[in-house]
Amino acid sequence: MSKRVLLIFPHFLKGRRVQPKVEIPLGLLCVATPVSLADYTVKIIDQRIESDWHSLLIKELSLNPLCVGLSTMTGQQLHFALEISRLVKKYSETPVVWGGIHPSLLPDQTLHNENIDVVVQGEGEETFLELVEAFEGTRPLPSVKGIWFKEEGIVKQTECRPFLDLNQQAPLVYDLFDLSKYNRVLFDVQHQPFFTSRGCPRQCTFCFNTALNQKKWRAMDPDLVVERVKDFVEKYNVQGLRFNDSNFFIDLERGRRILKGIIEANLGIVISKLNTDANTLFMLTKDDLALLTQAGCRRLSVAVESASKKIQALFKKPVAVDQVLKFNRSLKQSAIVPNYVFMMGVPTETKDDLMESISLAFRLIDENPEAGISWNIYTPYPGTELFNITVKHGLTIPQGVEEWIPFHYRNLTQNGPWLSKEMRKITRMLDFCSFFIGQKSLIRPIEKTNRLAMLLGKLYSPVARKRVKNLWYQFPLEINLARIFRLYG
């Protein structure tokens, strides 16, 4: 019997970009690693970088893999995942397995699609390996914890699988990818993604983490993190790392130990991004900032979300604005670039609510010209508290996988029924213009890799600032042109 397994990462969307943001899909690699270490041959097709992915798929199916696994999240990626699944069924009888955020949140509904045979719910490292063994015939399918499957057309669920101990997981087998195809440049160096923890204990009503990870945070031991970082950097000649943790400083002392370990290892890397939230900033001291700088950190991504007390209460995420401003000023002479992340497009939000956040955003970039600002557009994820509120404000719950495809965040600015027509236009304008309102803006990390983008961004910046400050969404000619040339939207 075949000992082959095929894993596929579908497109998120198609279109031109200022700089391709193609990074290794860590979630898929986490699932692939235990299977590879168990002596199965694992082939990974990343649809984003393989122009001949269709031919590769047909070739792999001819080798009779035990199964085809796909990772997908809510939104346009579902379109491509369904396209691939239909092709698998057209050319073979190979079982199709879905995992990732969307099927984990809606396993029952997902399985009602005729092209999907099994859903892996939650973390897939142990589950997918056991599932592969079941397809090989060495264990019964119902004995695999953490799956949903169909038996004679009836959807069935097995026992839930407990969360993994990250300290017991093997190092990721990066050799399963051609790293040369994942060469995103930030701050003048190529970087690769890396994670040291999963989940988040915060109560944020909009975040899928609350449903997927049940508000639990789990982390690798700091000494193990440093060991893994050192091995990864030295084996693959990595110049930069982007930490994908939802909040790196949930445990501040652990974070300090990791940074100190990286310094002591003398790796000379650039840390192109660390995620944190506004309330964590208050715990960081001058010594912590010095530690971050010495470890090579160049950017902190800070989740502020909103300056409006009403929206903060809706999010269950209070933020002390004066403390954010104080921290921002402390970074003015630092090598660390802060990027403050806001959210818009939520139910009940008004122009006044948005203006509170916009006023804070302009203070941040005016008081620290190195700072960047970005706005995320709210996406209603099933299983979250705010999703239920959004339903009360006009959202019709999709009844099948296909109906979730339009849930791309930028599409929601045009079709979100919980937003007024005016708020949709304002949201679209703010989404586009926020990239240009800072003196450095979000384009700064790639200033030496796309000079044309930098030049155009600087020329457009005064227009963007005026639009945002005045909530001027009328006559969006430049936004429409960007959409026509598929540079935006």
Structural account:
The protein is α/β, with parallel strands linked by helices and 489 residues long. It folds into two domains: 4-150, 3-Layer(aba) Sandwich (Rossmann fold); 180-484, tm_1862 like domain (pyruvate-formate lyase- activating enzyme). The protein is 40% helix and 16% strand. The protein is built from 19 helices and 16 strands. The protein has helices at residues 26-37, 53-62, 77-91, 101-105, 107-111, 125-136, 209-212, 222-236, 252-264, 278-281, 286-295, 309-315, 321-330, 351-367, 385-392, 409-415, 421-433, 451-469, 477-484; strands at residues 4-9, 41-46, 68-71, 96-99, 118-120, 147-151, 154-157, 185-186, 189-194, 197-199, 217-219, 240-243, 270-277, 299-305, 337-344, 372-377. The protein has a seven-stranded mixed sheet, sandwiched between helices. α14 (351-367) links the parallel β15 and β16. The longest helix is centred in the C-terminal third of the chain and has 19 residues, at 451-469. The N and C termini lie far apart (46 Å). The model has no long low-confidence stretch (mean pLDDT 92). Keywords: Iron, Iron-sulfur, Metal-binding, Methyltransferase, S-adenosyl-L-methionine, Transferase. Its cofactor is [4Fe-4S] cluster.
